[in-house]
Design a protein that fits this description.
It is built from 16 helices and no strands. It has 437 residues and is mainly alpha-helical. The longest helix has 44 residues. The chain has two domains: 332 residues, Rhodopsin 7-helix transmembrane proteins (Rhopdopsin 7-helix transmembrane proteins); 56 residues, no CATH class. The radius of gyration is 36 Å and the shape is elongated.
Length: 437
């Protein structure tokens, strides 16, 4: 059985690009190893499993991109419209925006290049477009990761050094830190403009690189891999441990002095940061490890290693996409104002009313108190005038020696009563007659 027969029998149902990739890997294996040997058999089994996984992988990728875009746009909208604006909301809004762009630069464009030949040729013919795409993929891999680290650091400062939060954790400083981080990430990703290979996810979509990519700055690629996959995970893990230990120690101290008091250990801001950091550690760490092994096996030319790693990268990429989509549910479960703005936005969209909310006030049907004013109740000025008039009549009746209760003088006149004007005229006439006598 020759190589083409092996290819046809094993990868008949694969996508053409996946089948072409599997064919090239098998031919390479047959050149360096025995075609009936153990290595080529394992490579064939892995490629067969990769072929079956690819059928659902591309559909799942498209679904997660659509869901993540919608949910992240909702999150960004709510954080912009939220009434209580602080530094944490600035970080979370930036994370929502960066995750949305990350989904499209690292997954939507490679997916379109995989299925559309004309779209793929556009990148092959326009070198500058391909280089810009390489730059943006690297930038939006590193930038959202360190935004989570900044958000965790901000929460650590608020808990460990609460007296410094008033001048370190402000909206202005948060914007400055985000701008500085973006500038550093631009510098770290600028080498991709020189047609260098990087730490992107393009290889799993079976699309070609930009005009035979160079490998002159391998050390910078490895540095970015460490900055993206190792250092942020370690920092986030350490800061989470410090936050949890400080909160527990403080809570235990308060419970000793106030044993009957109910102490809330974690507020909504701390819960949000801890959950996002844990999801970051769970979903990002496997992706970084697999990419690291991929670069290692490429340098050491291990056919079975590269084939296995490319298969595993599809699984880790699905986890990575889930982490970019699921933050909306964390915000919805921990932020009360986030829930109210989202619910009222949907309500107002249904009612076709104004969409401006959260700027002037935070509308809520549960909080708003409706006060109804009776149309028959006189105001305070009318009541004071009536009391003064009654007192004046009593004094003059007492002087005449004929102090008696007069029903007409003690009536409470209302401005909505039809007889108010006539009664007032009668009392004025009596008053004038008394003065003339």
């Amino acid at each position: 059985m020759n190589d083409s027969e092996i290819f046809i029998s094993a990868f008949l149902g694969c996508h053409p690009k996946d089948a072409q990739y599997a064919d090239s890997i098998l031919l390479l294996c047959n050149q360096y190893h025995d075609s009936n040997g153990t290595v080529c058999k394992w490579v064939k089994h892995i490629l067969t499993a990769d072929c079956h996984l690819s059928g659902s992988f591309y559909h799942l990728t498209a679904i997660f991109v659509a869901i993540g875009t919608i949910l992240n746009c909702f999150s960004l909208y709510c954080f912009i419209k939220i009434n209580k604006r602080n530094s944490q909301n600035i970080y979370l809004a930036a994370i929502s925006l960066a995750d949305t762009i990350n989904l499209h630069t690292n997954f939507s464009i490679p997916l379109l290049r995989h299925f559309s030949i004309n779209f793929d040729r556009l990148f092959e013919n326009l070198k500058w477009l391909c280089l810009i795409h390489n730059f943006t993929t690297e930038f939006f891999i590193i930038f959202p990761t360190w935004l989570i680290v900044l958000c965790t650091l901000e929460r650590l400062i608020c808990i460990v050094w609460p007296l410094k939060r008033h001048y370190l954790c402000t909206q202005k400083r948060a914007k400055i830190y985000i701008s500085l981080l973006a500038f550093i990430c631009i510098l770290l990703s600028s080498y991709r403009l020189l047609n260098e290979t990087g730490i992107d996810h393009v290889s799993i979509f079976r699309v070609s690189m930009c005009h035979e990519a160079k490998n002159k700055f391998i050390w910078l690629r490895d540095l970015n891999l460490i900055i993206w996959a190792i250092i942020p995970e370690c920092l986030a893990f350490i800061m989470n441990l410090v936050i949890i230990s400080v909160i527990r120690r403080t809570t235990n101290t308060l419970e000793q002095f106030y044993p009957k008091a109910r102490v809330n250990r974690y507020n909504q801001a701390t819960k949000t940061v801890l959950i996002i950091s844990c999801l970051f550690l769970i979903f990002h760490t496997p992706t970084g490890i697999v990419i690291g092994f991929h670069l290692f096996f490429e340098e050491h030319v291990s056919i079975i290693g590269i084939t296995a790693i490319l298969f595993l990268r599809k699984l880790t990429v699905i986890l990575y996409e889930i982490s970019l989509c699921c933050k909306f549910f964390v915000y919805y479960s921990t932020f009360r104002d986030f829930r109210e703005i989202l619910k009222n936005s949907v309500y107002r969209f249904r009612q076709k009313n104004s969409t401006r909310l959260g700027k002037q006030f935070l509308y809520s049907t549960k909080r708003m108190n409706y006060s109804f004013k009776s149309p028959t109740l006189p105001n305070k000025t009318e009541l004071l005038l009536q009391k003064n008039y009654d007192l004046h009549n009593k004094v003059h009746n007492f002087v005449d020696g004929s102090f008696q209760s007069n029903v007409n003088n003690n009536l409470v006149h209302s401005k909505w009563n039809s007889s108010t004007s006539s009664n007032r005229q009668r009392s004025n006439m009596r008053q004038q007659q008394y003065r003339e006598n």
